[in-house]
Each structure stands twice: as structure tokens, then as C-alpha cells.
Amino acid sequence: MADNLLNKNKGKRNLLERKEEVKPKQSFNRSTLYTVNESQQDNSDQNKEAPRKKEKSTTTTIRCATNTSHRLNALVTSFNLDSVNELLEILLDNYEASLTPDERREIKTLLEVYQRKSKK
């Protein structure tokens, strides 16, 4: 009986048949989707500060409490920063400026150790 059921479905094909090729009404390319009106951009550039220095680096994930994450994102939005990374750079620079020379030297040494460790 099982053989009968297997052979019964062999002759049937469950293929979809398309009647015609489907084409989109409009096609888009990347250059038309992501264009900026240059006259508007020129006016907004006059009001902004000098462009920020962006370093190309690898990223990592840092675990923190959800509340801390929300606080960081709120500060980024409030001060119109590009990213949490930029905020952290500012905060770390300000904190390191308040350290004593011995503490700064210790931080610099540890930073070199961590950088060597990540290169391996």
C-alpha cells in the first residue's frame, strides 16, 4: 500500500508556471536614491563647526546596564553628536585631564599593553 502511494505522486508535478515575466514599473539605482540637494547642504555647512576628525578603527561591543545605555544615547542626542563613540571619547579625554601625572602614566602603560594584546 505504501508503494502505491509513492508511485501515485510520481506522475504529478507540483511546479508553478508563470504566464509572463514580471517587471517592476519603475527601477531605481543607488545614485538616484541617495542624492542631496547641494544648495541646502551649502547653507547648512555654514552654520556647523569644523568637520570632526574620524578615525577608521575596528569596533567592539561593551556590556553595560540598559539604563546606562539609555543615558549615553540621550547625551548623544542632546549634544548632537555622531555616535556614542564620540561621546565616550569626549568624556574620557575630560576624565584623563583631571588625573595626576602618575595616574596618566599608568593609564598610558596599560593602554599600550592592551593595544599589543589586541594585535596578536
From TrEMBL:
Instruction: Locate the compositionally biased regions of type Basic and acidic residues.
Output: 14-24
- Show the ranges annotated as biased composition (Polar residues): 26-44
> Region Disordered: what ranges?
1-61
Report which superkingdom the organism of origin falls in: Bacteria
The molecule here is called Replication-associated protein RepC
Q: Organism source for this protein?
A: Marinilactibacillus psychrotolerans
Lineage at the top is: Bacteria, Bacillati, Bacillota, Bacilli, Lactobacillales
